[in-house]
Amino acid sequence: MEDDVIQAESLKKVVKEICEEQQIPFDFIEATSRSEQIIEKIPLTTYLPIYFLDIEIKNERKKGLEVAQEIRKYNPEGIIVFVTTHAEFAPISYQYMVSALTFIDKSLPFNERYQMIEKCLQHYQQRNTISVPTDDFIVENGHTTVRIPFATVQYIKTDEPHRLLLVTEDRSIRFYGKLKDIEKLDERLVRCHQSYLVNTMHITSFNARAGRITLNNNHHIPVSRRLSRKVRDIVKG
Amino acid sequence: MYIYDFIAVTFIGISHILLYFELIHYRRLSYPKLIFLSIIFTILLGIVVTVTGYPEFNVIMFFFFLLSLGLMQIELTFMKNVYFTLASMVSITLLKIVLVEAGMTLFMWSPFNLYLWTNSVINLIVSIIIVISVWFLRHAIQKFARFIVESPLYYFTYFLFVLGLVILFILTAPTIPFLAALHQDYGQLSYIGAIILFFILLLMVLISSHLTKEQMVQEQQERLDAELLDYVEKLEILHDELAGFRHDYVNVLLTLDEGVRTQNIKQVEKVYYEVIAPTSELINNREFDIVKLSEIQIPEVKSILSVKLIEAQQQNIQVMIDIPHTIREITMPIVTFIRIISILLDNGIEETMHSKEKILQIAFFEMEDRQYFVVRNSSQHQTIDLEKIYEKHYSSKSPNRGFGLYTVKSMVDKSANVTLETMFEAPLFTQTLIMKK
To answer: Which phi and psi (to 5°) does residue B64 adopt?
Structure first.
């Protein structure tokens, strides 16, 4: 959706071009400046749609965001990409509120913009061909809600009483909870130590003598003697 | 020995350990575990004293037991450990002596008959009172402990506690001949000494608790003053900038005036495009962000954000403020929230200054039942160890500045409904504070 007709048509052309070149299947490409038109067309899609939305529409500050929220109501899984004049200043709250995939800067040179759109469409293709059920790890209690793709979780440890630390490659999350409750959430999490739960997907080796697990990013996790046998059985498969 | 006595002794044991843990600020052990430990130790102590027949063990073993518990606390120096051990032993025992004495005297005045078990019952009541008061005073005790080790009263009370321990030794009715002789000669005197000592210590506690309060009020005041000064300073700089702009503006007007008067449209155009048009962006940008802060209806939060915003803009950092909806309340204690965000913002600004991109984004919004406060900044680092930055003495900048994130972490840990997410995708470092309602 874009209020500038020329920009909208040029974006449409680029998307079409990439789709044809990479043989990405699609139902239709629609360029419009009216949000109702998008909402109306949602039921017609057979593929998981991708939306390119301009944040600033005709002097209305929140238009793009409102449309995105509207879309989310009918189509929670669809991919939303925001197009804006200043991507480096794209509001963070949008990413959280409508889980936008990314922001594309209008002022970027054509080549770079082309590449970004290409990337978005590749993501679109991936999401459409491999229908991976979203494998999210969710912790929900009276004090916190944590939601993160399970595959990224490396380990969870007790930091302070009733405080847990979840670690992934690029983030750490500190939240309220007990390891005992977390342990029950997913079988792929294994208690290897009094205060550690490790995601078995990330274990590369186990050194029983040193009492530690090595993860695939070379991080070490301690293993208590009591749980050593269990961990060994799991690593052996 | 009555069952009352056993329960009383256990309660006293629990209060000793509880008081000691509060003094050294030990957090690892949950309260049920603490009670369990106390019971086991009391039974063990009872067996040792009965079997050996040396009541001295009572004091000695307890002393070393507490001392060894203190060794688990890394930040505690040995001298302080001894001090707190003494404090726990002496104060509880003295309190017990005084309360039992008072209880007995009261009982003598009362019309009831004195039975053999009276003493045990009084003992039990006293021990229950002690354990309950230690429990209710535990926060005050922590504050007191933090204060006393740095106050001039530290050495004096140290001496008093050592003296108290000696008196306790004499009072335990020891069997070692030397101590027994002392007990014989000075038993009565020690008893009176113990009571006097109790009142001196009580006086000390009252004085220092008064001083603690004063000190806290003073610290609070100093912090407020510093913040106010900071704010005024920022305002002055803004004012100066505005004054400078006004000065320029007058000059521009003069040039325009000249152009208009001579009907020189070329000159007017030139002035407009070169001088006036660019300023609109300047004015808009600044105002835009400050205006966004009006969405926050909590004055303390608004003022801290505006101070930090101005500070960042003065460092030539591009700041983006994103507050899409009105924020009316903070779902955590306001002082804690302000302390946390100040540290996050200070760190963010500091790191942005050294980065190439110089981008700082601040977002504050609500979603479902949660509030999000996000600080995202560009960083000069290629990798960041997301666990290490929260360690007590760690700092990526200079060695004596590593307390920031550690403080954030400990404040976050104390608030159950708060979640802190730290993310690094080079070059952007993001801190997200999530508060559940």
So the answer is: -70, -30
